Amino acid sequence: MCPGLAGAVSTKFDIMRTSGLLLGTPLEKAQTLDTDFQDTWRVALGANYQLNDAWKLKFGVAFDETPVKNPEKRLTSLPDNDRIWFSFGGQWKPTKAAAIDMGVSYLHVDDTKINNGSASDPSKGLVKGEYDSSVWILGAQYSMSF
After folding, report:
1. Cα 70 to chain center, whole Å?
2. What is the secondary structure of the chain as a DSSP string?
3. I need a surface site. Which of 65, 103, 115, 135 has the fewest CB within 10 A?
4. Which residues in the chain come in under a pLDDT of 70?
């Protein structure tokens, strides 16, 4: 068995208070989004298992915290929420110089409530409800050393 893999990363989202979308004439701001994000943590744990010289299995799990503070601050363009990653993959080395890596990840996302409206600008309307999200990610690569 290969050594375990672990990590923790903090992202300082709180410095990003607003973002603007440029549209139309040069540098004309079409819309400003009040992001008001919070700092987040991502923690992960994984392991590799060497079956033999040709095959290696890879496993991992991670918790990824959302920068969105609450349903009132959630943006329709970014219906983000806390998520857990479950990953599994493998590597096959048919020769010493070639490797094929394959992997799959499933992201479980908590049910995501939104209650985003603007009292100061009624023309923007109110979005209230719940998102039901999950994600599958598949990947593969071929590499060769020489």
Report:
1. 18
2. -PPEEEEEEEE-GGG--EEEEE-SSTT-EEEEEE-----EEEEEEEEEEE-SSSEEEEEEEEEE--S--STTT-BTTB----EEEEEEEEEEEEETTEEEEEEEEEEEE--EEEEEE-SS-GGG-EEEEEE--EEEEEEEEEEE--
3. 135
4. 1-4, 16-33, 118-121
Distances from the Cα of 130 to the Cα of 43, 65, 111, angstroms: 26, 18, 7
Encoded amino acid at 75, one letter: L
Q: For residues 128 and 71, what is the distance between their CA atoms, to the nearest angstrom?
A: 9
